[in-house]
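TL;DR need structure tokens for one chain.
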Amino acid sequence: MDDRTRTELEAAAFRRLVAHLRERTDVQNIDLMNLAGFCRNCLSRWYMEAARELGLEMTQDEARETVYGMPYAEWKARYQREATDEQKKALEEAYKNHG
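>> reply
TL;DR here they are.
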């Protein structure tokens, strides 16, 4: 497979992942962190870092809007719920085991 085709496939997979995360607003970032070790904010940070590696200026807010499909504050107001004690404990345990 040539580099261009690989890049196109990777870009398509990224777009599909982002679309899926936008649709699954019921899945909280803490759930993603607990299960997969990354969340929407991680994905947006990686996107921003990749842009900067190419010499493009991008703010955290711009990167988050790419992933969330709206300003982060709006997404939080609409969809983010307070983390339960169980979710917080699971996150703490996950990071304890990785540190």
